[in-house]
Amino acid sequence: MSKILVSGKGGVGKSFFCVALAKAFERENFKVLLIDADESNQSLYRLLGFEAPVLSYMDYLGGKKVFKERLRKAFQSGTKEPQIEISNENIQGISALPKEILLQRGNIFLLSVGKIKEPLEGCACPMGVLGRELLERFKPLQGEVVIIDTEAGLEHFGRGLEKGVDKIIALSEPYLDALEVAQKILEFAQSMGKPAYLILNKVPEEMKENLSSFLLEWGLNPLLILPWKKEIYLNSLYGKSYEEESILLKLQKIIPEIL
After folding, report:
1. Which of 150, 188, 193, 199 is nearest to 7 (CA)?
2. What is the CATH classification number for the domain harbouring 38?
3. Which of 255, 258, 44, 40 is nearest to 169 (CA)?
4. Cα–Cα distance between 121 and 127 in angstroms, integer?
5. How far apart are CA 105 and CA 70, in angstroms?
6. Average pLDDT over every residue of 228-238
7. What is the pLDDT of residues 173-186, one digit of tens each?
8. Cα(252)–Cα(246) distance, rounded to whole angstroms?
9. What is the reported pLDDT for 188?
10. 91 forms bridges with which residues in the sheet?
11. Contact by Cβ (8 Å): 12, 178
12. The pLDDT of residue 33 is above 70
């Protein structure tokens, strides 16, 4: 089964899209591990209807300071990276993960790698190491799929987070800055030998004609175009889960291609 990473410029709707995609997979009788690999954004758990966030993977392992010390010792000893101590082997399926770091709703399981909590606490690199090792070692069982919500931009490519995934989705809004980032994501994915797909989000109906001409000029061929929906904005404003039937149906149709 696939590990699918969703990437894009800030504000294009990655968190909403990841939750909607997880719900679409659930409708197709998959178990979904939704990994929150964004160190800044706090809202993913709300979009799934939870009242409080899950205990992060980093905190489960003792916190960022403890993990950074283990990193330092590992580098000093010549070890490439420390083990994350859930298992000495590959992690075989969702049931092999500690229940303490999972929130479950139906057949969707939410895991958070870690968050920046305090000013001056340093960079998010330890979370990048932890997320990369998790993705490389986690092996979905038959009937399971992994969806990874990433931080905005391209830094996670520099950290190598994509090494442990099977497919990459470049999510974009219909404006130049976001499309430039999406194009770069597609280029990075190609250079890594990873299948990648462009999906456009929040596209007003009246823009479709102009957008088609622009995409043709740039040589971009989106797998899917999702419409702008006022109801989604309103629910996102209050951090509420929102199920738009037409969008879920569109996502269900592309599942065979992105698996």
Report:
1. 150
2. 3.40.50.300
3. 258
4. 13
5. 33
6. 81
7. 999 999 999 999 99
8. 10
9. 94
10. 138
11. yes
12. yes
